[in-house]
Amino acid sequence: MKQKNPIAALFARSPFKPMQQHMEVVNDCIALTPALFEALIANDKQAIDDTRKAIFAKEHEADQIKHEVRLHLPRSLFLPVDRRDLLEVLEVQDSIADTAQDIAGLLQQRDMTVLDDMADDLRALVGRCVDACAKSNEIIGALDELIETGFRGPEAERVEEMVKELNRIETETDDLGIALTRKLFEHEQVMSPVSVMFWYRLIQWIGNIADNAEKVGDRMLLLIAR
Prior knowledge:
By secondary structure, this protein is mostly helical. It has one domain: Phosphate transport system protein phou homolog 2, domain 2 (Methane Monooxygenase Hydroxylase, Chain G, domain 1), CATH 1.20.58.220. 81% of the residues lie in helices and 0% in strands. The chain has helices at residues 6-13, 17-30, 33-41, 45-72, 83-109, 119-141, 143-148, 153-186, 193-225. The longest helix has 34 residues, at 153-186. The termini are far apart.
């Protein structure tokens, strides 16, 4: 008996359900990052590797959904949404999970030590980036309602407010990233230049999670504006 494609089944109900499912998996992927950094702070290499595997698995799941969406998204939709706009949103969503995978891969490949006075700032930055991704997931979750209302009315206003909150969270992550970078700068003299370079890269990648989450919200605003 031929098995049914679960993504194709979702498309049969709504062309937007797979987009939402993809974002949910991306959010699940990002939700694993606090555990990854707690393992780093504790210098628990086994826990780092275990969490890395879980993040890689979620990123792979998101990739599979992304490929299915590309294959099954109708070329023509009799709806107020351009196919290319949806694919752009999908790409930005996917970049969030890709970033988590890059971070997990780096921490598994290279020994990195978290200095005591950097730990709290690191936790705060990661936590707010997770919040940003969760908010973008909430925004994408409203896509069906936006379609039904023609991207107008109270539902559009509600999404606009959520995007404003997402923008506020992303601004906070910028400030937290700057604070963590300053802490790193204070210790540059006692760290190897290579370690400093990788830490700067890591801080940037963590911030990219929130940056890309914000882009998801911004693209939803563009859909509303059109």
